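User: Sequence in, structure out. Go.
Assistant: Echoing your sequence, followed by the structure tokens.
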Amino acid sequence: MRRGFDADWNRCRALVEQGVIRTLNLDEAQSESTVGSADRVFSVASEMRESRLSRIASRLLLLHGWRRLLLAFIAGGLASFSQAPFDFFAVCVISFPVLVWLLDGAAADSGSGRMQRFAAPFVTGWWFGFGYFAGGLWWVGNAMLTDFERYAWALPIAVLLLPAILAVFYGLAAALARPFWSDGFGRIAALAAAFGIAEWLRAVLFTGFPWNAVGYAVMPTPLLMQSVGVVGMMGVNALAVLVFSLPALLAGEKHVRAGMALAVVLAALHVAFGFLRLSLPAEGDETLLTRIVQPSIDQSEKWNAAVRDRIFKTFLDLSAQQNAQDAARPAMILWPETSVPFILQDRPDALSAIGELVRDDQVLLAGAVRIEGENAADPDARFYNSVVAINSAGVMYDAVDKAYLVPLGEFVPLEDLFSRLGIAKLVELPGGFSRGVTRHAIDVSDGISVVPYVCYEVIFPGIAVGETENASLIVNVTNDGWFGHSPGPYQHLRQAQLRAVEAGRPLVRAANNGISAVIDARGQLVDALALDAVGRLDVAVPLAPANNLRTSLAGTVGWAIVLALALLAAMFRWRQKSLKE
């Protein structure tokens, strides 16, 4: 018992020396704590206000070992409920203050060595991230269940290894904040800036996987999405962590009123700006009549050679249907990702059938596998996951290839090494998919062009801002059938909405089994087909851009916010060290 007391006493002294807590009389505290009670040490040594929240914070400060890591994991897991489809963002007001208090304690664990100073914060942040990503991305494992006998080995990779890798970025955020850690507001600013940088790194390193960025928690509705058009995802991520973490100040005495006032002001500005932008009139009334086809093809049948012709016919039938009240034909027909279950270049009869479907004033955009080479048997052939444009002559007159491929899904990093280990591609095509080089707009009607994004390309922040500058519309084709009835399709749709807001352009989305939707330039759903619904959706897509109150420099503004928070954190840290000296 005495050994445990000594350890807690040393941790308490370290917290005092680092400025996390202040003391009345350490000698008195030590002499009165002969029973070895950590609670007694803290109650005598700390000047924290006597409130329930203060007592909770004091207990969390003294947690160490597996107890601290378990609580970090639980806090991160709870934070995952802030994402779609739950959208319970208020849980982050609990999770992030808990993380702050745990990192307060981790700061006291840091040794004198350079690496030791970062070890405890990194591990604490990693466990928080592991809980967050395990709770928010467990559904990725559903992709392995479509052919369980072949891909059962990959289930732990999807369910555990992917969250473990992504958690490294949150561990890095905690470690980056460590040199700037101080008492009061300073540590909150440091953590917010570090999370902004960590989320940016998650979007760019190793091909990027920015799914469920923490900033999405504060943008569950179009009203709350508009700020991203000014501060970018980086700014939203940093400010979201700032607001979520500020309640940690309530357990102390420093900067409480200023911190709470700042949280209220930021939240009010976030809501007010959304209200103002949505209240502005649209810039024009031009529309494009579009037909979205959602067949809900079972994933187990999608590449079954025996049913390919039946699947193709399903697309043709859904595309050709007419309602009695139809006064005009759609100018654009949109099919989902890899909707054509064979290589179109190898099937001239299929192209002829599409030509018979498409009229002179129409165009079909279809997700399809495109080949460069003589045929699929050509050993030098290259395959692309593409969006192809087909006219009434049955000619593919344009195509855009997917540039961001899914690791282990569409390509295998370090393929030669992994092939020796028996790791095969999850997409069974000769040679897998090749990466698209450039993206360009496809003309679909007089003066109207679209920029297509395949599947999860639409999750990358800011990707459409520059590429759609001269286009009228964003197109996203996807196949979320891999993910079954899970949060995955809802999260994917949410991120597509944000790309429309960032670019100020409407977005049309065709998904194999849903959620297919038409989204206006401000992220509002115009119409949608429910998950697993079979049918088509005819919508006059509003082409008016939403350039009001947005900036093409949102990414720069986001970096400026992160830099300002980092400078504030450095200032508070310098001031604290100066007072000690």
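User: And one key feature?
Assistant: The chain has two domains: 72-278+558-580, 287-547.
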